[in-house]
Amino acid sequence: MEVTIVGAGLVGCLLACYLARRGHHVTLYERRPDPRERGPDRGRSINLAISQRGIDALRRLGLDGKVLHAALPMAGRMMHAPDGALTFQPYSADRSQAINSIGRADLNRELLEAASAQPGVEVRFGCRLTGLDERTGRLRFESGEEAAAGVVIGADGAHSAVRARLQQLPGVSFSQEYLDYGYKELSIPAGNGEFVMDPGALHIWPRGRSMMIALPNPDRSFTCTLFWPHDTLAALDTPQRIRAYFAEHYPDAFGLMPDLVADYRGNPVGHLVTMRCSPWHVRAGDAVVGLVGDAAHAIVPFYGQGANCGFEDCVELDRCLDEAGDDFPRALELFERRKADTDVIARLALDNFVEMRDKVGSRLFLAGKRVEHALERALPGYVSRYELVSFSTTPYSRVERRVAWQRRIVGAAGAALVALVFAARRGRGLVRGPEGD
Amino acid sequence: MEVTIVGAGLVGCLLACYLARRGHHVTLYERRPDPRERGPDRGRSINLAISQRGIDALRRLGLDGKVLHAALPMAGRMMHAPDGALTFQPYSADRSQAINSIGRADLNRELLEAASAQPGVEVRFGCRLTGLDERTGRLRFESGEEAAAGVVIGADGAHSAVRARLQQLPGVSFSQEYLDYGYKELSIPAGNGEFVMDPGALHIWPRGRSMMIALPNPDRSFTCTLFWPHDTLAALDTPQRIRAYFAEHYPDAFGLMPDLVADYRGNPVGHLVTMRCSPWHVRAGDAVVGLVGDAAHAIVPFYGQGANCGFEDCVELDRCLDEAGDDFPRALELFERRKADTDVIARLALDNFVEMRDKVGSRLFLAGKRVEHALERALPGYVSRYELVSFSTTPYSRVERRVAWQRRIVGAAGAALVALVFAARRGRGLVRGPEGD
Known about the structure:
Chain A has 437 residues and is α/β, with parallel strands linked by helices. In chain A, 41% of the residues lie in helices and 25% in strands. Chain A is built from 16 helices and 19 strands.
């Protein structure tokens, strides 16, 4: 088949590899210039945390080795209290599992190379989509260039131009939901050529209503991201205010940020949005148009699953093509079932923001996590939600069913334990039964 | 102030009247030609049911008399069972209250006349908005014409072009939610110059998963609307199938529809959508852009409140302008509080579809309505939700609080009554107490 993919970002490139392996001819249209010929975009969503779902999707194409070679494993969260005290919380009970910090630009270049190297894949840069006729698969680009394909797949991100067209069709439900928070990137450079904090952790400064995180880079710097209410971001409007605020709320990081004021004033404020769409594909006339990745289901970054989920979309669509014998309209129809999973991770990502910015700073929460890890060691088969999401490829919706089931089991076991203790004490005369009242 | 209103539909025209009364200069841009110079649009959302909120908004401008003169009051629902049996259910306990059937085109012409008659109001037809710069209030139309205003208000309906621009701005949350149902209009003509059914009722043929309704017109015809699942609408693809289906499921109406097959095949299928947006206004640079009516909060038609709610928007915005001393940015900020009310009616309208198509056909439901009307007669101050929505101007969100409060009171009274009866019977030895078990 002739397949057009709009967007040569992470998901578009990986999907092109999967489709080329099936023998399809793929043309990738990307609105930006070739990233291999330009510098990286500073200040916007630099780091990703690749975990099991992403690794699995890369491994099926033999791309995992090269990608992970450049990545930095983070085995847990390092919480920074306002007084500078550090607490490490491992992601897994045996501390063996890690999520992997990687730069978006590096990963994109790697996947672009992989896609370009496939026979049957062509990549066209500088092509911004301005028109799409879903009945004919005809595409029009800003340059005046036109194209047509029986199969058009939008992998063009949260603000997808392909989805913008589908949204105009009656029957296509859609929502975009912004948080009242913005994000801004800052930097902690290397000191004397070395990391100035532990590079084996994802660093979090939980501050109740807001937070900062930091992920390590191969050049031994850290990329920090503030997730703050818009009004807080806007309130720091002078170098004095910026320095005073960081000195008060992030004292240990403040000393490690020589470029704080320039970064704060120079880097843009990003927005945090959840996009939902249904259906993800429209079949009309001779053409079928579908969506994958953020174009179908953009989520907030707080579970580190945006790219992982998009990569898993490629695996799932590949599976649907198997099932449909490479009939794309049928495969895209089967692919709609994945919405049950992406709806779950969208919700978990929103919930995790509250956990990261607020709860991880609480002793009770950390004690709960220790109990959970103890349960994992004690009960074979008990696995935390975080591990099921990050270190397995269990579908997200099954993760939620399993977590609910585990809670019931543990709850029942706990109740039985309490009853046993009660019975034992009563047997020893320590508790008087109701007949004695 | 110079105010631009995009859309000269029902809400745009009424708002122009309200703003002109305050002394503002208003230009109304409408994409369609002047409806006074063209015939009515057949087959799409012909009839409205104007009730208290709409009447109140018209009355404040002295427009109620002329509008209601042309309307037909409907004092209740007439249910048509599959065997042709009729059941009348009044909307109010004393049968004195009615909603008013009126043609959208007639009402629009009336309001257009009223707006055009105001000094300071100009109406421009054939102007389709193609560009809007929210920072300058500059508008561009398909014709090439340009305009600018410090205040731009989108009253351009569910598929608002003004909102389409606001949706592109970061921070503007939005959703469009389609039902899996379509609607299609049919007709029951007059017979020998007379109504062939009772014109004092809104007729409903509840059929579980689907329904038909009919509203009377001044020419003594009825406009019928099917609300059917899309697959049912599509399945009747031959004259034989259409006739057979209606003969089976709507036998009494079938005999009154000589043009059934032509209407069914000729009229388009409409879609049912709920649109939500937040915020409704954006202030940027020197300009402010806001939304009212369906552009801000399109709802499904099942509570008969779409136009009433849009008219009430005008009253509320007028009130906000009072409060803000005609400072539009401030008034539009105050107007955001109305979202609490429009969110409620959006939900009630969705819920009422289930009630109309399914529950009104059940004896238990009708018995419940009779009990409710008995309560209204017996308890001073008890008013049903339907009456509060349709026959009062109590804000929708307060309707919901009051309904919840009434339910608690009646529940508590009911429980007390049961306890009293129980105690009385037990006192007479008819019930044995637990001590006798």
